[in-house]
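Exercise (ungraded).
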Amino acid sequence: MKRLFAPLVVVLMVMFTAAPLMIAWAPCEATMGLVQKIFYFHVPSAMMMFLSAFVCGVASVAYLFKGRPAADRLACAAGELVVVFGAIVLVTGPLWARKSWGVWWQWDARLTSTLLMWMIFLAYLLVRKYGGPGSEKLGAAMALFGTANVPFVYISVNIWRTVHPTTNVIPLLPPQMKGPLWFSAAAFLLLYLLILAVRVRLEERRAELEHAYLLAEEI
Amino acid sequence: MFLRVAWLVMRKDLTIEVRSREILYTTAFFAVSCVLVFAFALVKEGRPLEDAAAGILWIAIAFAGTLALGRTFERERHAETLRALMLAPTSRPAIYLGKLLGIIALLAVVEAVLVPLVGLLFHAPFGARPFMMLALLATGTLGFSAVGTLFAAMLVRARSRDVLLPVLLYPITIPVIIAGVRGTAALLEPVPDIALAGMWLSILTFFDVVFVTLSLWTFEPLMTE
């Protein structure tokens, strides 16, 4: 698996070079014009944010109930990536909103819930950092509860009236827009997996180092 | 057996509370001062904003609840009785349930003071649909307390526990606050919107079911070292 890393990075760079071209060739949306193209970054980032939240939640459950340290390392890495991709979503969103809706922010269901989820995982990072010994378990509980909120986030746009486009927009896209969207999504997925792999490896190295320190103390 | 243990834990907490009344008085007073602060802060044309009654009520409940949770578990930590509870040969979720019921009882008394006070100060007709109002308060308090009891219990041995409890609790319980405020606001309209309040009530119930179940499930692995 490790030998695949370098070639995959090359693939990723090629994809990110090709993506802007595909996005430029995609047709312009009727009402919003050029600004709409931020959609090709905004939506895949949102997808990655939710995916990462799910990964963090599942890994946290595995850590809480099975006690596997590898699960805790994965949860830590995934938690950080929720905050990173969430930050991308919450910056690109208002930038797009300002031009298309005229306001930076709207308190509708989808935006509010996404902000909420971002803050939950920010709190996850805070408790991992400042909770003292045993904070992995506290963080795991926080991540579990945070992930349980994700369905609320997704369903919310379909239950409440909202300014934000519903999730039904994607099937209705013309094929010339679907192509670049799924290409961008694939590129972001690859980016996410590679960053996750690097971060988990960092945590593994940290655990190995701690183990070595403890062994050295015994001698 | 499960329910008996929960009942015993709750009775222990309430007995201590009835004898000292420390948490009850301090929390109730804090909730009232909270309402006053909001009354002075949210002002329109020189008078408190009456539309904010629902919001102010629920914020006061949330803040007072956080305080009560912190104090209850601080008492356990101080007397080192938490270890005794964990050593007891009973199922852990029963202990959680007992603690939860104790917190709810405490918050119920605080709310019994708060709701008439807010109604009085903001001219809000809380008594217009009493059963609906009671249902909203009950489900909202249950949801908030369920998550709060779990987090307060797990933070007892953590560093920075005082600040971490609100940091962890508020984002998770914001759906409860939203549903509670919107449902209460629907009831305070000149013509109460029962259907809307009912919808928020069902959302609150759904939240309660999910999070009480999750809390019961995770209490055991969280409290073991």
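Further reading is listed at the end of the chapter. For now, observe: The helical segments of chain A are 5-25, 39-66, 69-100, 109-130, 135-148, 150-159, 175-218. DSSP finds seven helices and no strands in chain A.
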